[in-house]
Design goal:
This protein has 250 residues and is mainly α. It is 63% helix and 0% strand. Helix 4 packs antiparallel against helix 5. The longest helix has 29 residues.
């Protein structure tokens, strides 16, 4: 079978899987109880997307690997998620900056992917777009609340967006895979998503009285398995139980 759709589904699934784990780290630690529940639910939405995409990737590449195999039995260099989603939570402002940037990107991606010529990818995107629309609203609401709040909350929110900003450029990098699949109507060229993404986050910055960070350092390589030092620690935690009890079932 053609491995290219599998590789594409894998990178989208990895994005969702790794960010879902990061959000799960807020469980019982969020600033208020309502937010504890909200972040858990967003993480579960992302986990559902990851399960569908990883299952499809294992089927489409002909290896017969399950979603569990792909989530728990790959090494750091085999993951193809963008580096943004693996960044540590930091304080709440950093988490909300990361969530706004990724959700705004994912919303534009899924809107276009919902008409993919690949029926499985189209179905996953059509369902997920409704979830991600809420994710954007939720993150934007917090960015505005913190940015246009107290002097301290404004300072932290500005620091949060500046911390996460360099990792956003990788979201819109095109490569041979997206070029080939985009020409066939299967995938979406990431580069075309940036204008709408820019408009979304700029509007939030304006409402939040935040300054757009200056462009500079642009880390990259996640799609090729090149990651920050943080992913290895995340995977060690996420994969520990499965690797300690191979083949175990509930």
């Amino acid at each position: 079978m053609n491995p290219d759709p599998a590789a594409y589904a894998l990178r989208l699934g990895d994005d969702a899987l790794i960010l879902s784990h990061r959000l799960a780290e807020w469980s019982s630690r969020a600033p208020v109880l309502e937010e504890d529940i909200a972040l858990t639910n967003i993480g579960l939405d992302l986990l559902g997307q990851a399960r569908a995409l990883l299952t499809y990737a294992g089927e489409a590449d002909g290896t017969g690997r399950s979603e569990d195999d792909l989530a728990y039995l790959r090494s750091e260099g085999e993951f193809t998620n963008c580096q943004l989603v693996e960044q540590p939570n930091g304080d709440f402002a950093v988490t909300m900056a990361r969530q706004l940037f990724f959700s705004a990107y994912q919303l534009e991606l899924y809107r276009r992917l919902a008409v993919s010529s690949d029926p499985t990818l189209a179905a996953v995107a059509a369902k997920a777009v409704k979830e991600v629309d809420y994710h954007v609203d939720h993150a934007a609401g917090w960015v505005v609340r913190l940015g246009d709040g107290t002097e301290e909350s404004h300072r932290r929110m500005q620091a949060g967006i500046e911390r996460m900003w360099p990792f956003t450029f990788e979201l819109f990098e095109s490569d041979e895979l997206t070029g080939q699949l985009g020409a066939n109507g299967v995938a979406v060229d990431p580069a075309v998503l940036r204008p709408a993404w820019e408009a979304c986050v700029t509007a939030v910055f304006t409402d939040a009285t935040l300054q757009r960070p200056s462009d500079g350092w642009r880390p990259s390589g996640g799609r090729r398995g090149v990651h920050s030092e943080h992913l290895g620690f995340l995977l060690a935690e996420m994969q520990h139980l499965h690797r300690c009890h191979p083949g175990a079932t509930w």
